[in-house]
Amino acid sequence: MEQIWFAEIQILEQLQQVAIWIIQFFKGVTFLGEENFFMVLMPIFYWCIDMSIGYRFTLVLLLSNWINAFFKMLIHFPRPYWLSTSIKAHVIETSFGLPSGHSTNAASIWLFLAKQYRSKKLWVAFCITMTLLIMLSRLFLGMHFISDVLAGLLLGILLLVVFFWAEKKFSSKIDALPIQNKIYLSIVSTVLFVLIANFPILINTFTLPPEWIERSIQATNGTAPAPFAIKGMMTLAGVWFSMNIGYALLKETNHPLTTKGTPVQYLLRIVIGLAGAMALRYGIKMLYPAADGILLHFFDFLRYAIMTFWIAYLAPLLFVKLNLYKKSYHLNKTG
């Protein structure tokens, strides 16, 4: 692989010889493939556009990050600036390089949204363009080899194929389950989520080469790689746990499961909903007792689970109480 990497480094060197405004542009583009962006887009989509698509959007996002991190920790491939000081790191990443997480997210999420609204040709073109731009951004910013980006693209597409197949085969059967069984399924799937995610760490015998660490610190002004950190996996597991339970519980209530409203109602949902989510995400962290290791990971799981339960269940119920849906919608029993 080293011969391929160094051949690709020569291409990356040429790409990075562009004007600074192009680099700044790609910094903005790359944010549109990040978990933090999607974690804001997801609740807005869920509250204001389509609850069913928003729920499935969230599952795809979580699976994308989960499977990408799994393969990163299993394969142990470096980032370009870990191998060559000629590559500039315009942003900071601490995980392994292959496959590109941004490319997996872009392919899975943006192409998922393209499929949901495939009759809207301009929207489909926009989603495909966003996917390609995010992939390119990782090259210009020095974060990935071309092979990393292509692997991420293929992984994202494969994830979507499997997701749509599984949805077609099992979704109606899961919907027919009583609520207690759905809760049990959420618990079991969350345990599997965590165990499988940590499997590469349990079997790991790989040691980061000192020169990779040294070049990373040099390129990022002090940030060393931390490719086996599991904090991100625990927060993803918390979101997975509560999103599944919260949406299942919501379908058992008198919520209309629609999103239609006036512009003011949309705005109020976003402001109230995001304010609550941010208060929980950062407020709970301030209440943490002194902890590290497994206990800290448990607190991170719990914090994100509580925040997501607000997003998936409590906030939509509050919106009903505050009359933030069109009055023409009758709140008949659903489930």
Task: Give the SSE map.
Layout: H1 2-15, H2 20-31, H3 35-48, H4 51-75, H5 80-83, H6 101-116, H7 121-140, H8 146-175, H9 179-202, H10 210-219, H11 231-250, H12 263-286, H13 293-321
Fill in the keyword field for this structure:
about 325 residues; mainly alpha; 13 helices; about 0% strand; disordered C terminus
Name the average pLDDT.
90
The topology string of helices and strands comes to HHHHHHHHHHHHH
Strand percentage lies at under 5%
- What is the number of domains? 1
Molecular shape: globular
Distance between the termini: 53 Å
**Gyration radius over CA:** 21 Å
Biggest sheet details: none
Uncertain residue segments:
330-335
Number-wise, the strands total 0
Q: Helicity level, as a percent range?
A: over 70%
Q: Which structural class best describes the helix and strand composition?
A: mainly alpha
Tell me the number of helical segments per DSSP (H or I, 4 or more residues long).
13
Question: Could you explain the architecture of this structure?
Answer:
By secondary structure, this protein is mostly helical. It has one domain. 72% of the residues lie in helices and 0% in strands. The chain is built from 13 helices and no strands. The model is unreliable at 330-335 (pLDDT under 50).
How would you summarize this macromolecular structure in one to three sentences?
With 335 residues, the chain is an all-alpha fold. It has helices at 2-15, 20-31, 35-48, 51-75, 80-83, 101-116, 121-140, 146-175, 179-202, 210-219, 231-250, 263-286, 293-321. Helices cover 72% and strands 0% of the residues.
